[in-house]
Design a protein that fits this description.
alpha/beta; seven-stranded mixed β-sheet; four-stranded antiparallel β-sheet; 16% strand; binds pyridoxal-5'-phosphate
Length: 355
């Protein structure tokens, strides 16, 4: 029996979208592939509020994170760290031999614009990485305000991991001056895992030509060259592109404003419930629109709750991440999930816990 996913990635995929994966294969150098690619492109640009090319990565989000830091840092990268995924981006940066420093905050504390300003004023950096929505903690960093600060430093590129935020919360890529913003599609896009997308600015492509290539697979100049022909350098995940195209059609039919409002409404419902029965992990004012991390104030047996929900209700939620496992647990309210399904989940948790 399928367990309905309320996990912060992968998320639940609708059956109509799963069927798209079974579309008969086309050849990736045939004109019908370029037609598919060209069909997808403006829709992705609409979701991301951008005129920049949106590249398709046949990899999980981690590949696109690696691409950003290996192609776009000439001098030194500042990694803003306040959770597991931002920490991973620092590890990806240093692991690839890219000069970098981590600026760390406690996991329940947001990165504030003045912190970024202070770090960048050192003049050491020409790129900064930020995780918009920390999926490990349910904390949403103030992306727009941070982008305003970064914009005051003309040589500094803003690289954003928006993996669990994109398509669930607004991102004004061009208006906010974001040079690279990426997401894997298995989170708020509500698609199967295995594909990532990233909008890349013109000046980012320019710089990438001057950075010695650290990778062939994730080489931005090569990817751009293919992109201009509505192609990808190597064989892409063609089945995923059919699913992506169908999902983009449905998302735009719903309307991005309405989609974001639905996410905000589900977040408000889960937050109110969390405040009533538990507590919320991140500091107030920075709660995520796409998932909530609840503090286990009642000292419940979190693995037992997860197991019972799965076995008896066919519903799956997530434990806390890393060091805050069992001390917290997570409920995703993103993708194509509807408010009624969230109410049903919360009622099921109340039954299991006897609340
Ligand atoms: C899930 C996630 C990742 C890692 O994504 P993969 O697709 O597993 O590589 C990175 N960053 C954030 C914020 C995430 O939520």
């Amino acid at each position: 029996m399928h367990k309905r996913l309320f996990t912060p990635g992968p998320t639940q995929v609708r059956p109509e979208i799963l069927k798209e994966l079974a579309t008969p294969q086309i050849h990736h150098r045939a004109p019908e592939f370029s037609e598919l690619y060209a069909d997808i492109q403006p829709k992705l640009q609409q979701v991301l509020s951008t005129n920049h090319p949106v590249l398709l990565f046949t990899s999980s989000s981690t590949g696109a994170m690696e691409s950003a830091v290996t192609n776009l840092v000439s001098k030194r990268c500042l990694n803003l760290v306040n959770g597991a995924f931002s920490k991973r981006w620092h590890q990806i940066t240093s692991g690839n031999g890219v000069p970098c420093d981590a600026f760390e905050q406690p996991w329940n504390v947001a990165i504030k614009p003045d912190m970024v300003d202070e770090q960048l004023s050192s003049g050491k950096y020409d790129a900064v990485t930020l995780v918009y929505n920390e999926t490990s903690t349910g904390l949403m960093n103030p992306l727009q305000a941070i982008a305003e600060v970064v914009a005051r430093y003309p040589d500094v590129f803003l690289l954003v991991d928006a993996v669990s935020g994109m398509a669930g919360a607004p991102i004004e890529t061009d208006a906010w001056g974001i040079d690279f913003v990426l997401a894997g599609v298995q989170k708020a896009f509500a698609l199967p895992a295995g594909l990532a997308v990233a909008a890349v600015s013109e000046r980012a492509f320019e710089r990438s030509k001057t950075v010695p290539p650290r990778s062939y697979y994730f080489n931005l100049p090569l990817m751009l060259k293919s992109h201009l022909k509505n192609q990808t350098p190597s064989t892409p995940a063609i089945p995923h592109l059919y699913a992506l195209n169908a999902q983009l059609n449905d998302m735009l039919a719903e309307g991005m404003e309405r989609r974001f409002a639905r996410h905000a409404a589900m977040a408000a419902a889960v937050q109110a419930w969390a405040k009533k029965y538990f507590d919320i992990y991140p500091e107030e004012g920075y709660w995520s629109q796409t998932l909530t991390t609840l503090v286990n104030t009642r000292e419940i047996d979190v693995p037992a709750l997860i197991q019972t929900l799965a076995d008896e209700y066919n519903l799956r939620i997530s434990n806390g991440y890393g060091d805050i496992k069992n001390k917290t647990f997570r409920i995703a309210h993103m993708g194509d999930t509807q408010p009624d399904e969230i109410y049903g989940l919360l009622t099921a948790i109340e039954s299991v816990l006897g609340l």
